[in-house]
Design goal:
The structure is a homodimer of 230-residue chains. Chain A is built from 10 helices and 2 strands, in the order H-H-H-E-E-H-H-H-H-H-H-H. Chain A has 230 residues and is mainly α. Chain A folds into 2 domains: 68 residues, Orthogonal Bundle (Arc Repressor Mutant, subunit A), CATH 1.10.10.10; 143 residues, Four Helix Bundle (Hemerythrin (Met), subunit A) (Up-down Bundle). In chain A, helix 5 crosses helix 7 and helix 7 runs antiparallel to helix 8. The radius of gyration of chain A is 22 Å and the shape is elongated. At the A-B interface, helix 1, helix 3, helix 4, helix 5 and helix 8 of A face helix 1, helix 3, helix 4, helix 5 and helix 8 of B. The structure holds a DNA duplex (30 and 30 nucleotides). Chains A, B: This is GntR family transcriptional regulator.
Chain lengths: 230, 230
DNA sequence: GATCGGTGTATGGTCTGACAATATTTGGTC
DNA sequence: GACCAAATATTGTCAGACCATACACCGATC
């Protein structure tokens, strides 16, 4: 193995795995060689291979399973949400980020998504929004309400058709979950929020992009009073 | 150590380190205990501690240095750019993301940032933008031009005051660097781009938010013809 | 032939001990 | 006081061993 890029062994393993993924045209669902085999092929210790796999797992690129058979070992996957959620949580713990910034970024993504979605949303996503609306109506607890509220807003983001934004939005939602549950507790009721949701849904399915953006801005301003409208 | 959350040992180490960071109020710049000490305190093997540290390093939360003294060991840091850049690059390799999505997300962030920045940018960032403009004027190669172009757009994002968006923008810029260099090569000149840049700068310092958004939209539409204006 | 059950085995997960590489600290010498 | 050599603390790496897990295989039984 070339000793060129990166002095640490596991970084070279990382680069080599990345190279193989590109060269071999591996796709999500495909399997990587076992740790022992990789270690022997690359002439490195198994611990270096393991550290490289840990990095790939952290980046949401592989999932590791023990045992035997076609599902065992390191399998290529696609889960940036987990990485981003961890990233946000830990940087909040370190006070490198503020809740305010997270809320503002969410507002940005939802405004943009609403505008895009209003151009021509896929039925799949508007159906998911409708289902979430009904589920929120019959939610018995704030926790349950917020779970479906998250689904609604994620479906709205998905409707814009940008998977990167969707991944970021999922991570933001995960991070804001507790915050949102508390907010619903304080509010005591969800009628206003649901009215907003229905306005958003209507604007996206039958209104103009400007209507959709306005509806989202109005709603998030109510749900997160700190947020500054653009 | 409690065996409650997560079956894998290194995940428990991860949780314990995170708990200590929160409880001890550790901040960026502070040092974590050494690998051996952590292993003994938590009654786990050193390899488990190392895998946990590798995860934290991947998430841009710690940097590890060998040797002795106050700078050795795992030091808390703040570098989400690196994580996000890796995330984008690897997901592009796996075709889980498209260049188009990255460009659209960049457009979204810059539009939002321009609107926010026009409300009242800090002198620090407008100065950085001015410096980048001058550097672009005297750039001898497309590579050099793009380096300062990135600095300009990052300064614009910084001017909006959201560090999360700035981190995402940095990662997006890193990912688009090659693409941008090729685009400048094809274009053959940079006069139009610089004219756009000056319009953006003027709009942010003396114009309305709507002017700033329009200037950014116009510019990115020219630089990345694929991008769909909102 | 089909089904059930036990055994084998490949795989990740972990620990231990050892050594190498590196950067600082320490102490001795001029 | 300045400079150089040795001690030391730290991460980086490897090798080997063992455990837990989940499937594969094969034989016995119906």
């Amino acid at each position: 193995m070339a000793k060129l890029t990166g002095t640490r062994t596991f970084e070279q393993v990382l680069a080599e795995i990345e190279r193989r993924i590109i060269l071999s045209g591996l796709r999500v669902g495909d399997r990587l060689p076992g740790e022992r085999q990789l270690a022997e092929e690359l002439q490195v210790g198994r611990s270096s291979v393991r550290e490289a796999l840990r990095v790939l797992e952290t980046l949401g690129l592989v999932e590791c399973q023990v045992g035997r058979g076609p599902n065992a070992g390191a399998i290529l996957t696609y889960d940036p949400d987990g990485t981003l959620t961890d990233l946000l949580r830990l940087n909040l713990s370190l006070s490198s980020l503020t809740m305010r910034e997270i809320i503002d970024t969410r507002l940005m993504i939802e405004q943009w998504s609403a505008g895009q979605a209003a151009h021509g949303p896929h039925a799949e996503h508007t159906r998911a929004m409708t289902a979430a609306l009904a589920a929120m109506d019959s939610a018995a607890t704030p926790e349950e309400f917020v779970a479906h509220d998250m689904a609604f807003h994620i479906a709205l983001t998905d409707a814009a058709g940008n998977t990167l934004n969707s991944a970021i939005m999922r991570a933001l939602s995960n991070t804001l979950r507790h915050y949102a549950v508390e907010a619903v507790h304080r509010l005591g009721h969800t009628a206003d929020l649901q009215a907003d949701h229905r306005l958003i849904h209507t604007a996206i399915t039958t209104g103009t992009p400007a209507d959709a953006v306005a509806a989202v801005t109005e709603h998030l301003g109510r749900a997160y009073p700190l947020a500054t409208p653009m």
